[in-house]
Structures are given as C-alpha cells and as structure tokens.
Amino acid sequence: IEELAELDELTGAYNRRCIMRMLDDALLRARDDAMPLTIALIDLDWFKRINDLYGHPTGDEVLRTFAITIFANIREVDRFGRYGGEEFLLVLPGTTQDGGYPILERLREIVAALDWSAFSEGMAVTMSVGIATLDDDETPEALLARADDALYEAKAHGRNRVVQARPACGDAL
Ligand code: C2E
Ligand code: C2E
Questions:
Q1: Annotated catalytic residue: which of 9, 86, 109, 153?
Q2: Which of the ends of the chain has fewer CB neighbours closer than 10 A, N or C?
Q3: pLDDT tens, residue by residue, 51-102
Q4: Catalytic residue list contains 6
C-alpha cells in the first residue's frame, strides 16, 4: 500500500508528492554531507500532438515506455518521478554541474534513438531537458525554478536538447 501511494499509476515512476519529498531529502543530505546535487526537469516534446495524432492510449504507452527507458539507464541512487503531465523530475545525488550534462545527454540520445515507429508508423519522440545544480542556501523551489527556466530555453531553442541553468546568484559584471 505504501508503494502504491508513492508511485504514479500510469508510468510506475514516483508520483509528484513523492519525488518532491525525495528532492527535499536529497537537498538536506547534500548540505549535511557537503556533496553536490543536480536535478533535471525533462519534458517530452510535442506530446499533445502525439496524443492528438495517435490517440490517448498510444500517448499513455509512450509515457510508460519513456519512463521504463529512463529507469533502465540510471543508477539506483538516482530518483525519477512524474512531475505532472508529460514532465518528469530526475534527482541525481552526488552529481556535479559538469557531471549532469553528459548523463542527460546520454538519456536524451537513448530516447531519441528508440524505435517509436513500432507504436505507429512515422512516430518520433524526443525530450527537452533543463538541468540545475544546487547552490549554497538555495531552496528546492528556487532550484526547480532554475531548472524550469533552462527547460524553457531548451524548448525555445528547438527542443530535443539539454540546457544547463544559469547560476543561482547571477554573475556580477
Ligand atoms: P546501475 O548502477 O543501477 O545502472 C543501471 C543502468 O544505468 C546501467 O545499466 C546503464 O545503462 C546506466 N548507467 C549507470 N551508470 C552509468 C554510467 O556511469 N555510464 C553509462 N554509460 N551508463 C550508466 P548496465 O550498464 O546494464 O549496468 C547494470 C548494472 O551493472 C549497474 O546498475 C551496476 O550495478 C553494474 N555496473 C555496470 N557497469 C559497471 C561499472 O563500470 N562499474 C560499476 N561499479 N558497476 C557497474
Ligand atoms: P561515463 O558513462 O562517461 O560516466 C562518467 C561519470 O558520470 C561516471 O563516473 C558517474 O560519475 C557519472 N554518471 C554517468 N551516468 C550516471 C547515472 O546514470 N547516474 C549517476 N548518478 N551518475 C552517472 P564513474 O562512476 O567513475 O564511471 C566511469 C565510467 O565507467 C563511465 O563513464 C562508464 O563508461 C563506466 N560505467 C560505470 N558504471 C556503469 C554502468 O552501470 N553501466 C555502464 N554501461 N557503464 C558504466
């Protein structure tokens, strides 16, 4: 029962409440242990169009396959949850700013290379990603907001890409 309350029914990823709690815990632990923490907001590109073109049951299958693929390609210490709709949150404890990009780029390439046409002729699925690494004194909300801004940039610059967030305090000129 405990497990069911923590999982998103459709994808098997952690649900929003649970992944947010995990983010809070990971943040506290990172501070206690003076370790880095990187998060990634992942959004499936053109998902509404996939639903419209291929139907909701296929859209659900796409979400499920996407989640299974991510799970198969991250470590057990990493936390992956459904943040809402077609948006997911990946929490990478111990991962530095430089370490996050290649991990998400690897995942992006794996998702883009899947044979999505097995679902429906001509179908392609890609993801856009915003990543942010915890700064001193930053709240989970502020960290998420920076990742969200980076995700917005990834979308604005053509999708199917990973964008690193700006530093929390901004650079003095
Ligand atoms: P795991 O640590 O839970 O990782 C699960 C999957 O995430 C891996 O499956 C791989 O697809 C991906 N992954 C995790 N870390 C990395 C990484 O640093 N680089 C890359 N390119 N992919 C990564 P895979 O490869 O089938 O490995 C299954 C399990 O075997 C891993 O589970 C881990 O327990 C172990 N393993 C595989 N290679 C190594 C290794 O070089 N060192 C150690 N310590 N364990 C390894
Ligand atoms: P790599 O794939 O270039 O990964 C470089 C570093 O990125 C890893 O260093 C690790 O610190 C981080 N990293 C990569 N993928 C993940 C991930 O899914 N989750 C997390 N939390 N961290 C990740 P590390 O551990 O020293 O591994 C060095 C190299 O050993 C990796 O280079 C990869 O070539 C290999 N390796 C290690 N574990 C695995 C594994 O489970 N599967 C595969 N296929 N290769 C692995």
A1: 86
A2: C
A3: 999 999 999 999 999 999 999 999 999 999 999 999 999 999 999 999 999 9
A4: no
Within 10 Å of residue 9's Cβ, how many Cβ atoms?
8
Please state the atom number of ligand 2 nearest to the C-alpha of residue 94: 21
Which alpha helices (H) appear in 93-163, and where do they start and end?
A: 97-113, 140-156
- In the reported structure, the alpha carbon of residue 73 is separated from the centroid of ligand 1 by a whole-number distance in angstroms of 8
Report the relative pairing of strands 79-84 and 87-93 from DSSP bridges.
antiparallel
- Which residue's CA lies nearest to atom 11 of ligand 1? 73
Place of tokens 């604005």: 156
Domain residue ranges of the chain, discontinuous segments joined by +: 2-164
- CB proximity list for 168: less than 8 A, separation 6 or greater: 135, 138, 142, 143, 146
Ligand found nearest the CA of 96: 2
- As a CATH number, domain 2-164 is 3.30.70.270
User: Which residues does ligand 1 sit against, CB inside 6 Å?
Assistant: 73-76, 106
Q: Which atom of ligand 2 is nearest to the CA of 92?
A: 21
Q: Tens digit of pLDDT for each residue in 119-150?
A: 989 899 999 999 999 999 899 999 999 999 99
